[in-house]
Amino acid sequence: MKDDFLTDLMVLQSHLDAMLERMQSNSITLKRFQTFEIELLNLNSLAEMLDYILNSQDFFKLDYIGFCIVDAKKEIRSFLVNNDYDLESKPRLIFMENHQVMNLAFGSLLSSYIGAYKTEKCADFFLQDEKKLASVTVIPLVRKGKFIGALSMGSFDPERFVDGMSTDFIEHMTYVLGVCLENHLNYEVMKSSSLVDTLTGVNNRRFLEQRLGEEIDRAQRNNEALTCFFLDIDFFKKINDDFGHQAGDQVLVSVAAVIREQLRNSDVLARYGGDEFIALLGNIEESMAIDIAERIRGEIKDLVVDFQEASIKTTISIGSVTYKPSIGRKHLTAEKIGEDLIKKADKALYLAKNQGRDKVVSSGVTSDYLALANLFK
Ligand SMILES: Nc1nc2c(ncn2[C@@H]2O[C@H](COP(=O)(O)OP(=O)(O)OP(=O)(O)O)[C@@H](O)[C@H]2O)c(=O)[nH]1
Ligand 1: distance of its center to the CA of 237 in Å? Predict the structure, then answer.
């Protein structure tokens, strides 16, 4: 009798120990997830958020952590590239063109997947690493009933993620992640739309003023040339007078698109005023700059803008200047050098107009010293 009682007590004790151990382990896991979520909420940009997630593999003691974003119009990708986010070094950041993949994987229940890695279920969410993952979980990020992305986690251990395992912590974290992603995207869209010219879709003067200093800093850091074009449509007033303001608007849109096509994605193009545009071309020396400007001039000369019954033709004049950073101490701020660049490109444009328009004129190469000298003129 006494022995039976002692055996029962020992069994009870071992149950209690196991429960205590589970509670302690859950409490540690909860703390880890809470720490992660608090950090996540404190991040300032989409880029910071992506880096934080993609680098959290060790934090969660996993063999794989990846992030998928639905980006039907490739806007998020181009936003990140334009902001110097190095996508190539982030192969586990996967972009999806449509919601279809998500619908197929998660169905209408919007529920997550947990269990063995199954190609048909998981392949779209994982980079195919050399060593096969044994168990995974993929949790969709859903906002207002729509898939906006997914978090994918994996392990070489088949017991790490098994069907029926509780995913409460991960689901909660993914909810927070969804809210953060949505907020960052909304903020970036709002920010970038205030920096875009609504008529032509290229950037506006405000954006140029912000970027000019950054581009000069970059040129100095990398000791690379930076070219600035000042472009102005010829006799634009006459187009408005002859064909009407709406036709003039259409010409502005078409001209901006042609210039944009001739530049690289990383180059800046901004509408500076009425029919004036400024372009900044990183790492472009003077002779190459003149070739590019000539190509733009030629393309605009060939452009025909159809507006109602009219076929409108136009030309463009371009002033160019190339900045070469001087080695050694800098005497001027990037802002002052930027002002000097625009002034010089504008002067070259004035010469192009005076030489009969439909011309490219380069004012040559300028440096920090020339900019400094210019300041005292
Ligand atoms: N349609 C249209 N016209 C605009 C817009 N913004 C400015 N303009 C017009 O653009 C014209 C610019 O003309 P000017 O600066 O005189 O120069 P231009 O006629 O191009 O002559 P040159 O530059 O000397 O070859 C003005 O008539 C402005 O009214 C716009 O958003 N849409």
Answer: 5
Mean pLDDT of the chain: 89
> The domain that contains 184 carries what CATH number?
3.30.450.40
Q: Cα–Cα distance between 82 and 300 in angstroms, integer? A: 25
Residue 314 CA, ligand 1 centroid: distance in Å: 13
In this structure, are 166 and 211 located in the same domain? no
Residues 172 and 297 in one domain: no
User: Do 209 and 172 belong together in one domain?
Assistant: no
Statement to judge: residues 163 and 209 lie in one domain: no
Three-state SS letters, 306-352: EECCEEEECCEEEEEEEECCCCCCCCCCHHHHHHHHHHHHHHHHHHH
What spacing in Å lies between the alpha carbon of 377 and ligand 1's midpoint?
30
Check if the beta carbon of residue 152 is closer than 8 Å to that of residue 126. yes
What's the CA gap between 235 and 353, in Å, rounded? Answer: 10
For residue range 5-18, what is the model confidence (pLDDT) as tens digits?
888 888 888 888 88
Ligand 1, CB cutoff 6 Å, lining residues: 199, 232-237, 240, 245, 248-249, 252, 274-275, 353, 357
Domain-ending residue, one of 162, 193, 224: 193
Mutational pocket test of ligand 1: of 235, 237, 357, the residue with most ligand atoms within 8 Å of the beta carbon: 237
Domain boundary among 128, 158, 193: 193
Number of domains in the chain: 2
CATH number at residue 298: 3.30.70.270
Same-domain check for residues 272 and 140:
no
Write out pLDDT tens, residues 105-138.
666 556 788 899 988 888 888 987 667 899 999 8
**pLDDT score, position 113:** 86
What is the pLDDT, as a whole number, of residue 215? 93
Q: Whose CA is nearest to atom 27 of ligand 1?
A: 237
Residues β-bridged to residue 249: none
Residues 165 and 264 in one domain: no
Q: Which atom, in ligand 1's list, is nearest to the CA of 246?
A: 1
Q: Render pLDDT for 177-221 as a digit per residue (tens, 0 to 9).
A: 999 999 998 888 777 778 889 899 999 999 999 899 999 999 999
Shared domain for 149 and 261, answered yes or no, is: no
Atom of ligand 1 nearest to the CA of 275: 10
- What digits encode the pLDDT tens for the residues 214-265? 999 999 999 999 999 999 999 999 999 999 999 999 999 999 999 999 999 8
CA of 216 to the centre of ligand 1 (A): 30
Tokens at 127, concatenated: 């980079």
Identity of residue 22:
R
Ligand 1 centre to CA of 147 (Å) is 46
